[in-house]
Structures are given as structure tokens and as C-alpha cells.
Give the backbone structure.
Amino acid sequence: GENVEQHPSTLSVQEGDSAVIKCTYSDSASNYFPWYKQELGKGPQLIIDIRSNVGEKKDQRIAVTLNKTAKHFSLHITETQPEDSAVYFCAASTGSARQLTFGSGTQLTVLP
Amino acid sequence: DGGITQSPKYLFRKEGQNVTLSCEQNLNHDAMYWYRQDPGQGLRLIYYSQIVNDFQKGDIAEGYSVSREKKESFPLTVTSAQKNPTAFYLCASTLTVTQPQHFGDGTRLSIL
């Protein structure tokens, strides 16, 4: 089955700097890649997603890039703010009924 | 507002006891999922259901059971056979497997 690896497990950045989180996947049939943000005691919230027919997608300060050949995708957050501090999860889907396989998460801390 | 409601937020289980976690959605979604989240780990799939009266085991189904008698409801029972039930349990739903999953805010289960 699909295996998703996520790095780093923890990331600290200064406010205003950029943050990058990387994921690799194993199943070349995966075609949908969402990113979720989880705040303490809450469920994950979708922040951006990308499909395999697109190489990059942006939404204000957040962008995701996908390299299908290398089977990796990355989340980029620019101009980080303290409220960006949370755990971020990547996931991959082949479109099967079970849908998503998740990475192990990255704890992002934005230092004021 | 449409969304997913999980209850209770906190739950305590005694040894040898079965407990049931509630998940209700008013998004008119067909597919529903249960995940287990342990500290420092990603989300692991317990069970999922594509339609009413049908469900499949995920990666860690042992010691758990589910039912799907109504489209909007997908309760999870943690049985006494689950020897390490302490975790954060998340319910999710999606309209189709090509769409993002939406999550509830979770139930934290602890052993007394």
C-alpha cells in the first residue's frame, strides 16, 4: 500500500521567515495530495490541496509544489505569523475507497 | 452550519468495558472514516464506510467495531479487546473519494 514520509518532524522559524515541509510518497498511482493544519485539541483543517495534473498551487501565503517524477511534494508558507504555529500533515490518495494515507506530521513553531 | 460533530469530547473507559464514540454529519456526505491519532504520529485508519449498511476495515481495526445504519451517523465502539485504547479519535467525511475529507474535533479516550 501507499507509504507517506514527512520531514522535518519539528520546525522552528522566526516570524516573517518562510517554512518548508516536505513529503514523499511511494505509490505512483497517487493523484491527490492535501495538506492539513491541526491546532491543539482540534481536528485537522484542510489548508490547500493539489492534484497530479498540476505542478504548483498558491493561496495567499501558502503554496504547494508537486514533483511526480521524484514522488515528492512540499508545503511552503511565506511571511510566517505566530498563528501559523500548529501541526501540519501531508497526505496522498490514489482515489481508492480508503482514500488518504497521512504523513507523521510536522510541529511548526513561529517565534515572535 | 454544516459540519461534523463528535461526542463526547473526553471519555474514560474502565477495564473490560466497551465504549461508543459518536460521529454525526449534516454535510450529506456519502463516505465516513474513523482515525486514531497517537502523540507524534500521523492518523491511522480504523474503519471506513462508503454507503449506508456497508463498511470496511482499515489498517488497525482489531478491537474496534462500527455501524452505518444512517447516512449521517457512523458510531465507533472501542471494545475491551482493544488493549491500548488511550488515543485521540477523529471522524471524517467526504462527498466522494476525489474530494477533501472534513474532520470533526475529536474525542480523547483515556483509561481509568
Observations:
- The longest strand of chain B covers residues 43-51.
- The two ends of chain B are 35 Å apart (CA to CA).
- Chain B has a mean pLDDT of 93.
- The CA atoms of residues 53 and 68 of chain B lie 5 Å apart.
